[in-house]
Design goal:
The protein has 379 residues and is an alpha+beta fold. Helices cover 33% and strands 12% of the residues. The protein has one domain: DD-peptidase/beta-lactamase superfamily (Beta-lactamase, 3-Layer(aba) Sandwich), CATH 3.40.710.10. The chain has a 6-stranded antiparallel sheet with strand order 2-1-8-7-6-5, with helices on both faces. A two-stranded antiparallel ribbon has the order 3-4. Helix 1 packs antiparallel against helix 10, helix 2 crosses helix 5 and helix 2 crosses helix 6.
Length: 379
């Protein structure tokens, strides 16, 4: 009996030592790359076999090196905001309150997409908006300094001051081509407000964030005072801190999510479970599978896609002033990763971290190309 105990203890210790070495190699790579690239803080979550198996925080919330990044530290998710916002809009589709394929002007109340020659025969639809094929303008939004006057959402859509971007309009035939449009998601934000009668952060909290257990996420813009101590400071590519620590994004559906790596990993797991046929408190399996069906240019509804069937993966990247983000997961294999940094890093740092994760966790069907088509980054 004693011999068996010693045997199993030896097996356990060997496994423990392997996992420690496994973790150290990844951790050492990340800390080395952060020092090399002058990245103040990084938050990481790794999914394996449908569960979060590693949550790790590196560095500090700012370059004063006083406050370490914690699992609860808030980062701006940039355009990953679109993926969760799409979840909310698709919930309204299933509830019969929005249509995927109707003219959005039949559902908009406070603002209408301006009609022109491009919309004579083809109309803007929610399906087109969510798959970036609606013909709408405005790639992304720069945000506003915390001291700047903030525009109403209709000001943003009309391009009227104090908005700092031009009007959202159709300038190619809807459905004719794929073109990334944060402006389209801003139209969707207005649709949700008009249909529900609720502020967008409240709708998202009640409909998506709370039901999915994303307890450390919010679409509130500006960030409430009681949450500001939890937030990281953003840094531009030149190493300079964003004035006021971060920008404010009234374009919430497109860029307004504050979140953690763990919360985004939970979101990805919910998609995996629903895709597999398990219950989801927000979307049915059928709608989740529609979300992960390519509409145009390997773009689903709120998520980018790579591979097919057993190799199918969904992902989204994001960039706001001072923050970069990446979320990727397999639709069927139960693995994935989320990386958030409080820096605009124009190197291959996130790409290289993902490579190491894929190697260390034996993701043999990992398609390295998906991580590096940074569609959401503003040029």
């Amino acid at each position: 009996m004693a011999g068996k105990t010693i045997y199993w203890l030896a097996i356990y210790m060997a496994g423990t030592l392997f996992m420690t070495a496994h973790a150290d190699e990844l951790d050492n790579f990340i800390t080395h790359r952060m020092q090399e690239r002058d990245i103040a803080g990084l938050s990481l979550a790794i999914i394996q076999n449908g569960k979060i198996v590693k949550v790790e925080s590196y560095g500090f919330t700012d370059k004063n090196h006083k406050t370490p990044v914690l699992p609860t530290t808030l980062f701006q998710a940039g355009s990953i905001s679109k993926s969760l916002a799409a979840f909310g809009a698709l919930h309204l589709v299933e509830a019969g309150r929005l249509s995927l394929d109707a003219d959005v002007n039949t559902e908009l109340r406070s603002w209408k997409v301006p009609e022109n020659d491009f919309t004579k025969d083809k109309k803007v639809t929610l399906r087109g908006i969510l798959s970036h094929s609606a013909g709408l303008t405005i790639h992304g939004f720069p945000g506003y300094a915390i001291t700047d006057p903030l525009p109403a959402l209709t000001n943003v859509l009309d391009g009227v001051k104090p908005a700092n971007t031009s009007a959202v309009q159709v300038n190619i035939i809807p459905g004719s081509e794929w073109r990334y449009s944060g402006g389209g998601y801003t139209v969707m934000q207005q649709m949700v407000i008009d249909v529900t009668g609720k502020p967008f952060p409240e709708f998202m909290q009640e409909t998506v964030l709370k039901p999915l257990g994303l307890t450390n996420s919010t679409y509130e813009q500006p960030l409430p005072q009681n949450l500001r101590a939890l937030a990281a400071t953003g840094y531009y590519a030149n190493g300079k801190a964003v004035d006021g620590r971060w920008h404010v994004y009234p374009e919430m559906a497109a860029a307004g999510l504050w979140t953690t790596a763990s919360d985004l990993a939970r979101f990805a797991i919910h998609i995996q479970q629903s895709f597999a046929g398990d219950s989801n408190p927000v979307l049915s399996t059928a709608m989740t599978r529609t979300m992960l069906t390519s509409q145009k240019n390997n773009d689903g509804l709120g998520l980018f896609l790579s591979g097919h069937e057993k190799t199918l993966r969904f992902w989204h990247d994001g960039r706001n002033a001072g923050f970069d983000a990446f979320m990727m997961a397999s639709a069927t294999a139960g693995n994935g990763a989320v990386i958030l940094i409080n820096a605009n890093d124009n190197s291959s740092t996130i790409k290289d971290i993902l490579k190491v994760i894929a190697q260390e966790y034996h993701w043999y069907i990992y398609d390295q190309s998906i991580a590096f088509d940074s569609r959401a980054h503003t040029p």
